[in-house]
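[stage:ingest] chain + small molecule (magnesium ion)
[stage:ingest] validated
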Amino acid sequence: MKVLSILNEKGGVGKSFIATQFAYFCRYKLGNRVLVIDLDQQGNSGDILSASGLCQASSVYSGEIMKEGRTIEPTSEFLVIKGDDSLLELSDVGDDGIVTYNLSVAITNVQNDFDICIIDCPPSADVRQFAALSVATDYLVPFQVKAESIAGVDKTLSRATVIKDSINPDLNFLGLLMSLVRMQGIQKSNYEALLKTMGHILLKRYDPKTKTESGVCCITDRSEYAAAQQMKRPVFFSENGQTRKEALEVARVWITLIHQLGLPIKKPIKIEKDPQTGKLREVSTPIEQAKPTASAEENVQEQVTNA
Ligand SMILES: Nc1ncnc2c1ncn2[C@@H]1O[C@H](COP(=O)(O)OP(=O)(O)OP(=O)(O)O)[C@@H](O)[C@H]1O
Ligand SMILES: [Mg+2]
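[stage:predict] done
[stage:export] tokens:
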């Protein structure tokens, strides 16, 4: 099981958007078994996923796991561990090592039950960030192309380097992911400056057709993405079955992450709206088979159009 931690101590940079939408994509386009752990007491990703109708909320909360050493029951192939207020009491434990150990044990116990565990971190540099980096196989740092957001990235990266050097030598940095991008005005000149100084650590875009990396990944600021989050649905789901161009755009980022993480590509799972509850649900029959001529990753890209 891959463990992807999404962190940046700066708030509002798109961490929870990436955690929830990448989780939906891995579940429904890759057919993966997906666990999401929300380490934020604000509970954004936990609330969105559990209210979507698609993802089951675990009876145990992330604060209980870290504080009391409770374990995760793998009761669904798409499961979220919600955040709770006891996350704010972790300092009472008085030992960051125990808190981290508790999270590590809980995740290790379910490592054969899921293909990926996505950890959504809070906008703070406390023990939760330390623990998320200590238990992760990979981490991703979303940021906005704004001066204050870029400044925060340095601190996050140096903390991650310390953890890699001291505790988690196999920790892999996927890159910096530009989020909420509006490529105009000050953001455009910041971006050009950024390419010179930090270009080498920006997440490169992977093209499954040419099997090469070209350009950098970015997630544009789009009202469709905010709407999908508010309506607690995957960006790629549309009731009339028409493909959203925004879904295709952001799928390029997800395909890059899938490639970098080496996730298994299984059968996609169709979803539909339950006419009675108005919530989404999984449909048990698989949708169209992968075309034998294209690579698995190319098929994933095509399946976005068949949401
Ligand atoms: N690419 C995007 N385009 C438009 N809106 C977005 C995008 N990404 C995120 N949002 C919206 O911006 C707000 C902040 O995003 P999000 O909650 O993902 O950030 P965060 O880094 O998790 O914040 P926090 O640090 O407070 O947890 C949310 O309302 C979200 O729906
Ligand atoms: Mg968040």
